[in-house]
Every structure is written in C-alpha cells, then in structure tokens.
Amino acid sequence: MSQTVDRALSILPLLAEGPADLGQVADRLGVHKSTALRLLRTLHEHGLVYRQSDQRYRLGARLFALAQEAMENLDIREIAHPHLTRLNDSCGHTVHLAVYEEGEVLYIDKVDSRYPVRMYSRIGKPVAITVAAVAKLLLADLPEAERRAVAEKLDYPAYTPRSTPNAPAFLTELEKVREQGWATDLGGHEESINCVAAPIRGADGRVVAAMSVSAPNVVVSADELLTLLPLVRRTADTISGEYSGRNPVTAQ
Amino acid sequence: MSQTVDRALSILPLLAEGPADLGQVADRLGVHKSTALRLLRTLHEHGLVYRQSDQRYRLGARLFALAQEAMENLDIREIAHPHLTRLNDSCGHTVHLAVYEEGEVLYIDKVDSRYPVRMYSRIGKPVAITVAAVAKLLLADLPEAERRAVAEKLDYPAYTPRSTPNAPAFLTELEKVREQGWATDLGGHEESINCVAAPIRGADGRVVAAMSVSAPNVVVSADELLTLLPLVRRTADTISGEYSGRNPVTAQ
DNA sequence: CAGCTACGTTGCGTGTACTGCAACACTCAT
DNA sequence: ATGAGTGTTGCAGTACACGCAACGTAGCTG
C-alpha cells in the first residue's frame, strides 16, 4: 500500500468530523505541516476538500458528485426502482432497498410517497445492521466463515428490549432467516416500527440485495404487515428474475 | 502537489463512469499495472473503491458515508431546512436550496411533498448553471473578475429556446439579477418549468446560498408563480437573519 | 507601535518509498 | 495441451515525497 496516498485519504474521515485547519490536520496525521499542506492541496485540486473563507478545510463538493454517480451506476437500483414504487403504490408504506459491502449494509434506495422525508438522511447511511430485516437477509447469505467473523466483530446496541442482544443470538437468527428465505424486524430498531423483507438474488442464487416494507404500529399491526409478505416476496423475485436477465418470473 | 496522490485520486472519477478492471485503470492513468494495483489497494483499504465479484473495481461505500457526513456538517442546510418545509407547506411547490463552490453550483436540499420524487437524483448533482435561478444569484454575487472568468469557461447548452445562449448574455443577466436581488428561470431549463429564487446572505452581506420555488406551467402560470416572490424573499431573509446569528432561534 | 505568538507558505538537500520491469500464478478459450 | 488474457509478487534504481529551517503575514498584548 502506498504511504502517501494512505496519509492523504486519512484526511477525509478526519475532515468529516468537522472543519480543521492545517495544523490540526498535520498533528492528527503525525506529519510535518508542509507535508499536510501538499496533501491537502492535492485533495483540493481534485475537489475532495474545500477551503472555506476562514481558511479551514472541509470536505468538498466533488465528493457528492462522485457518490452520486456511483449510486446511479448501480444497476440493481436501476432495475429495482420501478418495482419498488409499484409496491409502494399498492401498500402505501415505506420501501427500502439495501446491499451488503465489506462488513456494512447500506440503503441504496427508498420510496415513501406519504411524507416529505429527507431521503439523503438515510440513503448511503449504514443500516442498523444487527436488527434491520434487510441486514439479516444479506448477512445470512454470506459464507459460514465470513458470517461468523462479521457477527463477532459487531456491536449489539440495545435500541429496544427486542434488539438482537449478542452474536450467538444473531447467528441463530441468521440461520432461521436463511432457512425461511425472508426476514422481519419487529420493533428491534425503534419500538413502534416493524419491517418485512425479502432477498433479491442474482443468476447464481446468491443474494445481491434485499428489500423491505416498513410501517409503524399505529398504522398497521405486525400481523397485518405480515400479510404483505407474499407481495414483498413476489416483488423481490420479479426483480431477481429481471436482474438475472431471465424473463419476468412468476414463481413465489 | 503530490504525484502519487494525484494519480490515486484520478482513479475516482474514472470509476464513477462505471466499473473497470486493473488493466483499464492502468491504461487510462498511463502507469504500469503494478502501480495501478498498489493505488487501487490503498483506495480499497480506505473503502473508497470496492471490488465486485467479477474482480472489477467500482466506487465504494465509504464515499457515501463521507458525502453524508459532509452534508450533515453544512450548517446552512441545518438552519434553512425548517423554513424550506414551511414554505413548501404554504405553497405546495418544490423548494430547492443551493450553494456555490469552486465553479459549480449544487443543490444541497430539496423539499417536495406532492410527488414521490427520487430526491437523490438532484441533491448533490451540479445544477444547470447557465439557466437555474439559484445559479444566477450565486454567480451574480461573485467578484467581477471571478464572475467573468467563470462565465467564459462555461458551456451554454440550448436546453430550450429560452436558455441563456452565451457568456455575454449570461453576464448581462447576472448584472440584472445582482441589481434586483432576486432571479427567475422561465422555461430556460425545461420548457414547462418556471422558478423564482432569492439569495441567503451571511453577516457580511455576501450571498452564501440561494433558494428557489419551482412549478410546472400546467399547475401555475409564470405570472402566478411570481406572486410568490415576496414570500420567497421573506423566507430567504429570515434564514439570512438566523444564519448571521442576528435573530436568536425561537422555539418551534 | 513595537514586539510577540501563531499560523500558512516556500525552497531545498536527503533518503525513503514509489515506480516499472520481468517473472510468476491463475483462469478461460480454443 | 497450449495459448492469450488476466492479477500478483520481488526487486533494483531513482524520482519524488519528506522534514527542516527560514520567510511572510496576520492578530494580540503590553
């Protein structure tokens, strides 16, 4: 690995915490000011950092544009989106699409026609991985070894009394999810929110993404939400079929 | 600036166009494969690129998280948001918030309660800078020299017959906008869409952001939309006041 | 206003760490 | 099997990134 690049890239998460001046950056990197300056200049030239009027540095605009383009290029999202909106039309609840990447699960799409939700507050943000229904599906499909490794490394925050408490409980839950081919989150993240989720598979049967429908208790009970399961699974299967290049699938 | 970092960062926009394999990256950088490999590995370690199952590289998840955090740290957005939603409540149209940064104008917030718009398709995306009302306001406030320099460098795509045709036309338009303290886009980007916009100023009077209300012709005529101008300007002024720390924030 | 400190910036010699080469390992087609 | 196409590794030479020290410029303080 390249030392110089490594140092330069370490600046980004540092600036993500908030603006910093040259001295602070140099200190936290453990390098001389002149070195930090050169790195910052290079980052600046690529638009990844921006120098605000008080001369301090913060993350730059190009970052948005890149994240943007990266998102647009995810073909799963492209394919899934119309199906997600259609599902949303017919049930009215929030629909999420998520993928797994290197120990993290992220939402890559969301449809919610009812409320003016600030979408970017979730898209791209790591999911509550130990409780979210989509996370369970994505992790359940990992190879045994990796699954256990990831499960061991995670924190298990007790969002609610129903949150997954620890790694063993999580692993047995994943096993169950794996068997049944779908997952739920019943008040595990927020007391009053329930979700049902189904996997989207590639041509080789591996899970490439997962989608879920979420609704608060006050609108529909958990049991009522579960009646949507067949519809969710059918939608996921349709997307799977289209993603694999097969003709729209009628299986359920 | 640093050559190594420069090369590494050049990989990012390259991958933004779509996934690429090692050879392609090396070619487009004009370096040896082993060099490209080392750079990619470093980027990978920082989560900025991801290696998909077919071994090709694409942009990684950390990018979203970073863009995310950068966004959250923009205090203008924080302050403006409740005012934007309130404006949206009272008029029902789409409301945008945008800032200028290094030759680009970007939307950093958007409220649209009516339709299930895919918000992220605009947030963070560079604005049609030659025609958008918010862009005119932001550019109009630049120092003479910079304004001209930017105007000269721009492309002037003819989105519609009413699009700004060239740099001189743009500069006179900016002059007008500067004088009157507000701006419009009447079908300059999309034939049937009109916008009115107002500037948000910092304590020193400089324009730090701009906000706009947009609506299609079929809903309200351009004249009708213009009747909203006082409301838009009042909202912008309120935000300006709060941003400058003048008016202490009152409980909502 | 002089003197101070704190900060960003510049030029330069030294030596590190980045580069490109060449050889290797591997997967697919033919 | 054999070949062409990948990605990967170790190594020697040298470009280039590093830290130093000196300078420029603010912003305080007496």
Description:
- The structure is a homodimer of 252-residue chains.
- With 252 residues, the first copy, chain A, is of the alpha+beta class.
- Chain A folds into two domains: 3-65, Arc Repressor Mutant, subunit A, CATH 1.10.10.10; 74-243, Beta-Lactamase (2-Layer Sandwich), CATH 3.30.450.40.
- The first copy, chain A, is 46% helix and 18% strand.
- Chain A has helices at 3-16, 22-29, 33-45, 62-72, 75-91, 133-140, 144-153, 167-180, 222-226, 229-243, and strands at 49-51, 57-59, 94-101, 104-111, 183-186, 193-201, 207-216.
- In chain A, the strands form two sheets. The first copy, chain A, has a five-stranded antiparallel sheet with strand order 4-3-7-6-5, with helices on both faces. In chain A, strands 1-2 form a two-stranded antiparallel ribbon.
- In chain A, a hairpin with a 6-residue loop joins strand 5 (183-186) and strand 6 (193-201).
Structural descriptors:
10 helices, 7 strands, Arc Repressor Mutant, subunit A, 252 residues, DNA-binding, Beta-Lactamase, alpha+beta, homodimer
Which class of secondary structure composition applies to the elements of chain A? alpha+beta
Query: CATH class of the largest domain in chain A, anyone?
Result: Alpha Beta
Look at the structure and give the mean pLDDT of chain A. Answer: 87
Residues in helices of chain A, as a percent range: 40-55%
Architecture of the largest domain in chain A, according to CATH? 2-Layer Sandwich
User: What is the multimeric organization of the chains shown?
Assistant: homodimer
Order of helices and strands of chain A: HHHEEHHEEHHHEEEHH
Count of folded domains of chain A: 2
Q: Calculate Rg of chain A over CA atoms.
A: 21 Å
| Structure summary, number of beta strands of chain A | 7
Keywords (chains A, B): Activator, DNA-binding, Glycerol metabolism, Transcription, Transcription regulation
InterPro entries (chains A, B): GAF-like_dom_sf (IPR029016), HTH_MetabolicPath_Reg (IPR050707), Tscrpt_reg_IclR_C (IPR014757), Tscrpt_reg_IclR_N (IPR005471), WH-like_DNA-bd_sf (IPR036388), WH_DNA-bd_sf (IPR036390)
Protein name (chains A, B): Glycerol operon regulatory protein
Function (chains A, B): May be an activator protein for the gylABX operon.
